[in-house]
Amino acid sequence: MNVDWNSVERILLVRLRSIGDTVLSTPTFSALRRFLPQAEIDFLLEDWVAPVLSGLDGLGEVVTTGKTLSSRLSSIRRLRSKRYDVAVNLHGGPTSTFLMRASGAKTRIGYSYYRYAGLHTHLLGSASDFWRTEKTHSAEQQLALVGAFGVPVEDRPDSVLGRDVIAEESISRRIRDHSIDPGRIALVHPGAAFDTKRWASEKFVSLAKELVTRGLVPVFVGSRAEADLVAGIVQQTESEAKGWSDLSLPEVAALARKSRIFIGNDSGIAHIAAAAGTNVAVIFGSSNRHHWRPWTRQPNKLINIELPCQPCPGYACAEFGHPRCIEEVSVEQVVSAIDDLITA
């Protein structure tokens, strides 16, 4: 059953959770934007991640929600006031499903395997059904939800980011203040959600020294929660490496655009860098590389070792008691990937 897109004026994309999830939902936004150039297309995002879409061309409103009941009720009131014709549930968790239903959208699209799938009006069995392939990327999984109901998605649009003018000016000023040549910046993110995805800090120290010998300036970034990790690595490099753990998400995107290369773990920052058009080298441990690889047409490298237990949920290593998948990735492997990318 297709959607009567000719009558659609307002669309809501629901994508709760993380930075990477949000970035990888933008190909679906782009597909809808070009298909319905006059429609208003809004996002429902968690409040802390919403800035990642700051300045995105063609975006209507970002409706945010927090964790508290009062925040959720406020979000529902705002959603209902918009009178959406279509809501697309790109997440599928219980909260996103209930908020989608509470929006009052007449057409509600999701997957048949979602919890509370009955709250949707249009269901797709799986992304594999749509793409006719066993393995699908997260971006393809989300694109399939609108592709299955009549939106052209076969060219698999890129991820996109907006340009936040204030963030761009802030990063340009910081680079000048530190006397850094933008053409030499190697953006490095040493953090990740789980130990099974986090390359050792001492290896990042060794990597920084290798970057310096190649004429690059390592700029380590992280959230405020990762400030000690970033500072500890920079202190040990005894080089011109910088450590910035006070950047907003739009500032990270602005810095990525000015960087020659990104190196880091599988994380939301890696997806920001890929969407910014930066050459990226991503170190993978427990994650599903096919599902979470950089969604980019720019030169990129996935760095990993092969183990039969991959991928796994990643919360802890159930196979060996310690995450060999990330521990055994060598500095030499990463440096080799970087050399390929800086000469690409």
What does this structure look like?
The structure is a single chain. With 344 residues, the protein is α/β, with parallel strands linked by helices. It folds into 2 domains: 5-147, Glycogen Phosphorylase B (Rossmann fold, 3-Layer(aba) Sandwich); 165-342, Rossmann fold (3-Layer(aba) Sandwich), CATH 3.40.50.2000. Helices cover 37% and strands 16% of the residues. A 6-stranded parallel sheet has the order 3-2-1-4-5-6, sandwiched between helices. Strand 11 (280-283), helix 12 and strand 12 form a beta-alpha-beta unit. Helix 7 (165-177) crosses helix 10 and helix 10 packs across helix 11. The mean pLDDT is 96.
What's the layout of helices and strands?
Layout: E1 10-14, H1 19-23, H2 26-35, E2 40-46, E3 62-65, H3 69-82, E4 86-89, H4 94-102, E5 107-111, E6 122-124, H5 127-131, H6 138-147, H7 165-177, E7 185-189, H8 201-213, E8 217-221, H9 227-237, E9 242-244, H10 249-258, E10 261-265, H11 268-275, E11 280-283, H12 289-292, E12 300-303, H13 324-327, H14 331-342
Parallel strand pairs: 1-2, 1-4, 2-3, 4-5, 5-6, 7-8, 7-10, 8-9, 10-11, 11-12
Helix pairs in contact: 2-6, 7-10, 8-9, 10-11
